[in-house]
TrEMBL record:
Family: Belongs to the short-chain dehydrogenases/reductases (SDR) family.
Keywords annotated in UniProt: NAD, Oxidoreductase
Protein's name according to its UniProt entry: NAD(P)-dependent dehydrogenase, short-chain alcohol dehydrogenase family
Keyword Oxidoreductase: yes
Organism: Pseudomonas psychrophila
Residue intervals of the Ketoreductase domain: 8-179
Keyword match Manganese: no
Entry-linked InterPro entries: KR_dom, NAD(P)-bd_dom_sf, SDR_fam
Length: 252
């Protein structure tokens, strides 16, 4: 097993389950000290316990990424616990209810933009001073195949994820002078709690398997391994990329 991140300090948001937990687990298994952050305190503490039982050097902090001062406290908690911040993974996100445009409410629009786009801005804004202070090298945001593609009934989610791609690219230009590479992963359909309701029923899984040219839904670990690549020295010349992890979906 490679241990590319020995003693590196990594922060992962949305780490209580799904893709975020897979990212946290992958970093911990390669020797990183990992701060798990999430809004759901019960699931967060269960995830922390799980990774600790697996031998990970981990801690956790409850955060609501829609609240900038909460994000500042989250970063302060990382520095207090591990004395540095080397790598930040901004992954927390929510789906939006699927509905025709006229039925989508202002509240639904605001909620999805607040978590998926403003949340990443809040996290990055709070993280950059600590990354600079520590000589940190990477920010990886979780975008989506909907950063490139559009689906009917999902205007808020699609707009938020297009925004994450734009924020990633523009901030990559602003931050590369500090030695911080900003990149994103763009997952296709991945089997996580977010997708669980849609996977129920006979046709659910078959629909998602058929949607990706590779012929199956993705696994959270397959996204995590790409996040680790982007964070690693192997990606030292990768700046502002939005890396598709979607079994070929963005090509269709
Ligand atoms: N699963 C997929 O098919 C898929 C596809 C493309 C992109 N994504 C993106 O991947 C990321 C992770 O999604 P997932 O599938 O693992 O979903 P998930 O629901 O399993 O995990 C998301 C986590 O984010 C947390 N969260 C939500 N709002 C938060 C807030 N305001 N503050 C802090 N934490 C908050 C949740 O509590 C949850 O633990 C999201 O950004 C999602 O949009 C997922």
């Amino acid at each position: 097993m490679k241990r590319r991140f020995e003693n590196k300090v990594v922060l992962v948001t949305g780490a209580a389950g799904g893709i975020g937990l897979a990212i946290a687990r992958a970093f911990a298994s390669e020797g990183a000290k990992v701060m798990l952050a999430d809004r759901d305190s019960a699931k967060l503490h269960a995830a922390e316990q799980l990774l600790r039982q697996e031998g990970g050097d981990v801690a956790s902090v409850v955060v609501d990424v829609t609240d900038y001062s909460d994000c500042q406290k989250m970063v302060a908690a990382v520095v207090q616990r591990f004395n540095a911040l080397d790598i930040a993974c901004n992954n927390a996100g929510v789906p939006s209810p699927i509905a025709p445009f006229e039925e989508q409410s202002l509240l639904q629009w605001q909620r999805v933009m607040d978590v998926n786009l403003n949340g990443i801005f809040h996290c990055m804004k709070a993280q950059v001073p600590a990354l600079r202070e520590s000589g940190g090298t990477a920010i990886i945001n979780t975008a989506s195949v909907t950063s490139h593609l559009a689906f009917a009934g999902m205007a808020g989610y699609v707009a938020s994820k297009h925004g994450v791609a734009g924020l990633t690219k523009a901030s990559a230009l602003d931050l590369i002078g500090y030695g911080i590479r900003v990149n994103a992963v763009a997952p296709g359909f991945i089997e996580t709690p977010m997708l669980a309701p849609a996977l129920e029923g006979e046709d659910g899984r078959a629909f998602f398997d058929a949607r990706a040219p590779i012929g199956r839904i993705g696994r959270a670990e397959e996204v995590a391994s790409c996040v680790l690549f982007l964070a690693s020295a192997e990606a030292s010349y990768v700046v502002g990329a939005v890396l598709n992890v979607d079994g070929g979906m963005a090509l269709t």
